[in-house]
Amino acid sequence: xxxxxxxxxxxxxxxxxxxxxxxxxxxxxxxxxxxxxxxxxxxxxxxxxxxxxxxxxxxxxxxxxxxxxxx
Length: 71
Fold this sequence. Notes:
Elements: E1 3-4, E2 13-14, H1 22-27, H2 30-39, H3 44-47, H4 52-70
């Protein structure tokens, strides 16, 4: 099972437990990568029940991406 990178428009397949492809993951600031890992619960990609804190971190990432791509 795989899914695509969460970077908007990226169609790179990544393992289910990974947020995104290596280039996009490392394009994120360290504090956002740390938030994703700190709030990730193993198995959430299987039961499709991420925590509210993970969803907040994921939204912060998407907000950062949107701001960066407007520059």
